[in-house]
Each structure stands twice: as C-alpha cells, then as structure tokens.
Amino acid sequence: MKGIFWGWVLGILCSVSLNAQNRTHKVVAGETVVSLAQKYQVTPYDLYKVNPEAKNGLKPAMVLVLPPNAVVPKTKPTPAVVANKPNATVARTPVPATHTVLAKETVFSISKKYGLPTGALEALNPQLKTNGLQTGMVLVLKKGVPTPKPMPAPSTTEHTHVVQAQETKYGIATRYGISVAELEAQNPTIVDSLPVGAVLKIKKSTSKPATTVAEPIKPKPVETLAYTVQNGETVFSLSRQFGLSEAALIRLNPELKDGLKEGMVLQVPMQVSFAKNRTDSGVKDLAQSANRQKRRELVLFLPFNAAKIQNDTVTGVVERLKKDKFLNMTLDFYSGALMAIDSARTLGLNVNVRIFDSQESRQTTAALDLLKQEDFSQVDAVIGPFYQINVEKVAAALEAQKIPVISPLSRDEGKSYSNLLQSTPLPDATKAAMLDYLQAKNGNIIAVVSPKKQSMRQYLRDYYEGVKLVGVADNGSVVADSIKKHFVKDRMNYVILATEKTGAVMTTTASMVAAQKDFKVQLVILEANETLDYEEIPIARLTKLKLMYPSVTRENDSPTAEQFDFAYRKKNKVFPNTYAIRGFDVTFDTLMRISQENGFLGTLEVATEHLENRFDYARKVSGGYANTGVYILYYDEDLQLKQAN
C-alpha cells in the first residue's frame, strides 16, 4: 500500500517538475552563452549540456532549453506605454562632468545611473583597472574633461567623512575627538538617522583625526583533540598525516622539541584531525571485487513525513510539492537512490534494501522507534536520517553493533561515533584540499584577506606558514604593488582571494592580468565568493586567470553520465538535479562497499568515484570517519570547467 502511495506522489512530482523544467529562452541579437549563463546563474557548461547545438554559436530567435538549476530572474510588470506626441520631448537629467564615488557604489551601479557602458567608464578612468573603485574617488564622465587632481588635504580644523556601513555617531565622534552633540550640530541632517554614504563636515580645533584602525577580531582559541603516538611514528609522518607543518605541530606540543616517544599524548587541531595514512589518491572500481554470493542488507531512513501528506487531496499534494523544499529534496534523493538500487542489481549484487520514513524535523525523528520495532541484526549499513542531530542519534544506537551509519547530506560537524561516516566533505576539508594541492604543485601562494576574515588569516598562519598575506583596507582598497611584490618567476603564483570587497577583487584581478606577461599567475578561492558574480567583474577576466576552487562535486560529461541522464529522464520525465545525483552516488557507493568481502568498514582505505561525487574516507581522531574526497576545478579560457586533480 505504501509503495502505491509513494508511486502516486512521485508521479505527481514528475508532472510538476516537468512543467518547471520545460523552460526556454529565445535568443536575441547580441546575447552569448556567457551572458545567458550569468543571467540565469548557471555555468556555460550547464547550457551546453542541455543545448549541444549551442557549441556551434547562437543565432537570433534560437530557442534554448534552460538547465534544471537555472534561476529565472523575476520581471517587474511592464508599465503601460503612453504614446508621445510627435513634438513631445523627453527631459533627461544632464550627465555631470565628474562623479564622486560614495560608499557601496560599484562600477556597474554608476554606469547604470548615468547611462554609460562600463567599458566607456573604464576607458575614461583608466585608474579603475589598476586600483579598483574606491570611496571618495572622483570619476570623469565626459570626454575632454581633465582627470581631477586629488583634493588637497583638509586643514586641521575641518574634515570630510563619508559614512560607512555599521558606523555609529558615537564611533565617528570619538574618532574626531568631539561629542555626539557637536557632530549633530555640525551636520543637522543626521539628527534622526545616519545613512550610509552621507558626507559629513567635521570641524575640530586640535589634533588631526586618529588613524582608522580596524579593531582586530580575536581569533578563537584553537580547539584540539588528544592523539596517542603509535609505534614507528615520527614528527614528519604525523605532520603529513594531519596536514600540519612540523613547526605548527611543535608549537602546539612544545615537548616535541625533546623528541617523540611512543605513547606520548599530543594535542591535534580539531580542524585538521584526520588520520589518513594512505598516500594513493587514485580511485578504485569495487564492482570487480564484489562478493555476489553473500546476501547484504541496506536500510535507508528518508524523511518523507508521510503523515503530513496522506490526507491531502491531489490538489493539496501538488501545492505542497510546489512549496515544500525539504520534501522535494527527499523525493529527489529517493529517486536517485532507486536508480542506484536498480544499477546494483543489474551488476548482479545480492542486496536487500529496506526504506523507512524517518518522519523527522530538526530535533526529532521516528528512526529511533523503528530501530526498536524492526530487526536490524542482519543490516550491513544505514543511510540517513538527513539532519545531522538525527543521524547522530541513530549512530549512537547502533554503535555497539558496529553498523556503519552514513550521513548523506549534512556538512555540519557534530558529535563523533566510531560507526558514523560523514559522506559530504566538511568545509575545512575542502579548504585543506585546495591548499594541499597548491603546495603539492610547489606554488608560490599569496592570500589577499579582508579585515572581516580574521579567522581565515589565522587559519593560514597556523597551518600554512609559507602563505604570504596581503591586507585589505577597511574601505576595500588594496595596493596593486603589495600583491605584485610577492610574485616570483619560474613558479606558478597562486593568489587566494579571501575578500568580499569589490574594489579589492577588481584591483587584485587587474594586477594579475597585467602581470601575466612576466609571471605565471592563477586566481584561487577557498570558498564561495558572491562578489565574483557581480556584473562589473568580467567573466572573461576570471577565465583568463583560470579561476580555481575546491568543490565537493564535479562536472561529468562522460558516456556513463550521459547514459544515467538519459535513463533517469526516461523514468522520471525530468533531468536529474543535484539531490537526485547525490542520492544515486551515496546509495550506489554504499551498496558497493557492503558487497565487498570485508564489508563497508573494510573498504575505507579505498577511494571511489561515481557520477559527481568522490568518496575518500579518513579516520577522525575524535572517532568515526569523514569524506575528504574533494575536486579541484578551474575555468579554462575556452569557458569550460575542468578538473585539476
């Protein structure tokens, strides 16, 4: 009966999703694959994947299918157009000769304000390409206007101050040595509020304003775990094992200066506490070594929350599917898992799979009751529940039976259990993978770090001592020469961008492009950076610098991936999304591992790879295992996303 019910729900889901995915775009003159990728927040690869004909070029009136993950911009209702009389004229605001940049303004917003193309604005103001946009900068808006000379420094009695985000009246008054009342008296417009970008005139009779120094954010103390030294281990092997420099390991454990002894208890940072002895990073196909004779059993705890749905009408279910993102995610994962089960049986694996409704919220789950009601004595592995706190409860309940419990989606690091496996790489693991790759390539590593990212600065100082740090001013500016002075010849210069400041991004990328004639340079980010999505950051510049970043998934256009896409779409009438592919990869990997002679836990020295995910488990010092399978991806100059590792 439950199977019929969920088949009905999936049928409705497919019809709803099909309507959502039959979205198209009609090409107009001047549009390119890159501009459309930016418009719909996808990659050029995504568009090429569903529109192979686009590789031959776009033509006006061509109709493109939008990828499933495309974000269609919301359009405002078009106001009614009133026909102008033949002699009517439209008054336009005259474009001034210059513009003084205010806080939060960007090249794009200024261009839009005055109706100038960004290229024209940059041509009139070449300093934008070298120094980026900075608050207080005076821009030329018309040809023939001489470049404004810097304003003379104000006298010691009067200062101009542009209000920045998160500043307060008290903070500004204190900076200039006056009271809040005096500040308001000199600037009556701020009595009721203090708007960002407001230009204040401040008079004071004595000393110069104090230099703005961003109050450093005190880094949190390094959290550590105890590790007992084993026979045969050395300081060098331990530093390799934990991804630390020898100096960093000794700094945490000063007693190492007197030598390392078996049984010694060391403090190891929790962030890098993976004990990984295997040096072979290659992946292995486990299909050849699977034991097809012995019966294996897998349990999936998936949060269908059927009790909320089964009393709904068809219309009610459709409406719920439109709004309930968690249910959609569950059904997508489920559909991918079903494909994995079919694939495993096609390969002749002898597996029995039981799927239960975990009926979970952020704090509760029915999985614990199911553990008591159902027989788990023959279970070889459990996938789920989804929420980390719930999967930890299941792992705790099954730890004594040594049944592996796989957390399928969560990137949260909570409690550790010897049988708990985190299948999604944690954020610290992705950063470490990227930095380890740069070091393995013998790269010269430079990091541009903004004041707000003190934790990143501290992380680099603690664990990657060779990284050269470049600071970003409070207003988002960075001096191009402060980056270039660190470049070296005959080695790749990797520049890590760890700033949300548009000006710093513009300056850094522009200086890197300018340096390409003399140095080998490549742009790197360690985590998602929304600033790179802004329209004033040309995608051509990012591809020219071959932007590289760590990712838990890869782009896969292999014949196997294409066959999966075809089979999935044939069965479900929609393209597989991220959660469907994740459902396939996690389930198929688990089925492969439990089908080995030594079971799941006997395969953890082996790395595997499926459609979009790599599984390379490392033992956590605190207990359990975490997936360290991270891809290093980069954009090539042909706009294709490629894999570096």
From TrEMBL:
GO molecular function: lytic endotransglycosylase activity
InterPro entries: LysM, LysM_dom_sf, Peripla_BP_I
Keywords: Signal
Family matches, as SUPFAM superfamilies: LysM domain, Periplasmic binding protein-like I
Signal peptide, first to last residue: 1-20
Stored Gene3D superfamilies: 3.40.50.2300, LysM domain
Boundaries of every LysM domain copy: 23-66, 97-141, 159-202, 225-268
PROSITE patterns assigned: LYSM
Pfam families given in the database record: LysM (PF01476)
Name of protein: Amino acid/amide ABC transporter substrate-binding protein, HAAT family
